């Protein structure tokens, strides 16, 4: 049994029964059967369904947003924005997707894209709708079918997504929610009826899924953690950089793989940036996520807050200094204050970890070489944000930053048309854009 807990109040919400072994088997077979017919549908049938799903997201936006806020604590306004983004994602693949599947001619033949079968998605709680849509929209367009194992604390969201897809008129078995625990995932991956798996989550979960996929010789896409650098050079617009840095750190209460977590600032502008950034972080309003004036809701759970507090304590024990904030707020709920850490020892293991909460680590760099070295001195390589108005500096960063994505003079974001993913321990493979669509398709060569 899964029970939702409102992290803003600690109050239990709806409960959801875990699938029995027989029920799980029925769903897998239903997916297998659905694929046999869906794979041969034409693109118009698939894109029409994508458009109808988008309409359902729009029509149910407020209800869907409230479920996410109650289950994992994001502000209602950010949950509404997430639902709107989901509708845009479905429409993107409906409108642009068929062109991505056009055959590619080469001397003597063509290369054509074909579906593969049921795809299993193991998804996290932090963007509980958008993470699913990133896999589901291209899955439907490709002619595949989808199975969702969602995080335990967002089972209401998972059920709602399935309801939306069914209400849009999807064939039975095209997309199914699997309310199961993580210990069932390896057996699912080994099942011959499931052809591939995609996971967004922690390093540990990624290693387990990758191992299971490797044993079954199945395609896997992994989007894991990140400790994204936010680099500020002297030529940058400091006011805009500092303002954006606040949003980039506290969005989703700091619980995003592409949140800016390490602010790396050139020595010449370090003090000026810190003054502006600190003022912005101190002004962050943490409170009831249903209220429009709230900037930041609670963390997803008491356990998640304690993890962040423990990380801060370890950094302080190694000589780091908490300038302000970074503390549990009194009263009900998993709230904590936004904060800034300085003098973090870069050679200590804790500085290599991902801080999944609203606390920034601030570092000083003497020059561009030092900034790049600091940026790359972690095992992650997901995203990054660089702030410079110098063309030569921009070229250096684009070439030398070890990451799958770079935002220039802007906050990094995931977009339906832009490839999303990382390198190193941040995973492999890509979501979104044509590359995410092609990940789980068979590129078939036809000669003659």
TrEMBL record:
Tagged with keyword Oxidoreductase: yes
SUPFAM superfamilies: ALDH-like
Keywords of the record: NADP, Oxidoreductase
Pfam families, A to Z: Aldedh
UniProt entry tagged with the keyword Oxidoreductase: yes
Coiled-coil positions: none
Span of domain Aldehyde dehydrogenase: 2-446
Family membership noted in the UniProt record: Belongs to the aldehyde dehydrogenase family.
Protein name (database record): Succinate-semialdehyde dehydrogenase [NADP(+)] 1
Native species: Sphingomonas psychrolutea
């Amino acid at each position: 049994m899964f029970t939702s807990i409102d992290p803003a109040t600690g109050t239990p919400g709806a409960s959801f029964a875990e699938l029995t072994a027989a029920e799980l088997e029925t769903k897998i077979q239903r997916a297998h059967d659905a694929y046999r017919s869906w794979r041969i549908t034409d693109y118009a049938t698939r894109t029409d369904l994508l458009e109808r799903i988008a309409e359902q997201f729009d029509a149910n936006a407020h209800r869907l947003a409230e479920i996410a806020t109650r289950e994992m604590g994001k502000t209602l306004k950010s949950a509404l924005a997430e639902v709107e983004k989901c509708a845009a994602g479905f429409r993107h693949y409906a409108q642009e997707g068929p062109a991505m599947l056009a055959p590619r001619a080469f001397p003597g033949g063509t290369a054509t894209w074909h579906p593969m079968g049921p795809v299993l998605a193991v998804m996290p709680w932090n963007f509980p709708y958008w993470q699913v849509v990133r896999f589901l929209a291209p899955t439907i367009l490709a002619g595949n079918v989808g199975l969702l194992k969602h995080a335990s604390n967002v089972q209401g969201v998972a059920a709602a997504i399935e309801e939306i897809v069914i209400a849009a008129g999807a064939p039975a078995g095209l997309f199914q929610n699997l309310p199961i625990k993580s210990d069932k995932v390896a057996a699912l991956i080994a099942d011959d009826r499931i052809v591939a798996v995609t996971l967004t989550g922690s390093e540990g979960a990624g290693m387990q899924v990758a191992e299971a996929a490797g044993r079954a010789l199945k395609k896997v896409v992994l989007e894991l953690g990140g400790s994204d650098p936010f680099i500020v050079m002297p030529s940058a617009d400091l006011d805009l950089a500092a303002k954006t840095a606040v949003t980039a750190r506290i969005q989703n209460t700091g619980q995003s793989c592409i949140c800016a977590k390490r602010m790396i600032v050139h020595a010449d502008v370090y003090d000026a940036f810190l003054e502006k950034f600190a003022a912005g972080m101190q002004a962050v309003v943490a409170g009831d996520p249903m209220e429009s004036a709230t900037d930041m809701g609670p963390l997803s759970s008491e356990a998640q807050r304690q993890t962040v507090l423990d990380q801060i304590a370890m950094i302080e024990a190694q000589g780091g200094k908490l300038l302000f904030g970074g503390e549990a707020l009194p009263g009900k709920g998993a709230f904590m204050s936004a904060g800034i850490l300085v003098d973090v020892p870069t050679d200590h293991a804790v500085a290599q970890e991902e801080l999944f909460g609203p606390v920034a680590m601030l570092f000083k760099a003497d020059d561009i070489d030092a900034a790049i070295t600091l940026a790359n001195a972690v095992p992650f390589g997901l995203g990054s944000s660089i702030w410079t108005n110098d063309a030569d500096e921009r070229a250096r960063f684009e070439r030398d930053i070890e990451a799958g994505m770079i935002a220039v003079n802007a906050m990094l974001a995931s977009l339906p048309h832009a490839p999303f993913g990382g390198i190193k321990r941040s995973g492999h493979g890509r979501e979104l854009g044509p590359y995410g669509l092609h990940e789980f398709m068979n590129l078939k060569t036809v000669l003659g």
